[in-house]
Amino acid sequence: MLENEINDVRRTLSDNIKVLRKELGLAQERLALEAGVDRTVVSKIERRISNPSLDILVKLAIVLKVPVSDLLRFDKFEPH
User: Is residue 8 part of a domain?
Assistant: First the structure.
């Protein structure tokens, strides 16, 4: 049960970052550069391989122009 909930949050985070990044016209590499993280960090988050630290979430949220809480909200951003 707990693992399912963790996977749901991971999926939500991944989807929200990807949708927001694409809406801003940013490649993974550009998002990573502007956030001051390695490109592989963004890739791993979007592929649900890695869990970002709070510091990384804050950096990504700033570049994506949303509060950190929005990155974790279910059904917040719908893919177009």
Answer: yes
Instruction: Return the CATH number at 33.
Output: 1.10.260.40
> Could you tell me if residue 51 is inside a domain?
yes
Is 75 among the domain residues? no
Q: What angle do CA 74, 68, 77 make, to 5 degrees?
A: 35
The pLDDT confidence band at residue 39, using thresholds 50, 70 and 90, is: very high
pTM beyond 0.85: the answer is yes
Spell out the SS3 assignment of the chain. CHHHHHHHHHHHHHHHHHHHHHHCCCCHHHHHHHHCCCHHHHHHHHCCCCCCCHHHHHHHHHHHCCCHHHHCCCCCCCCC
Question: Up-side HSE of residue 8: CA atoms within 13 Å toward CB?
Answer: 8
Average pLDDT score over the chain: 93
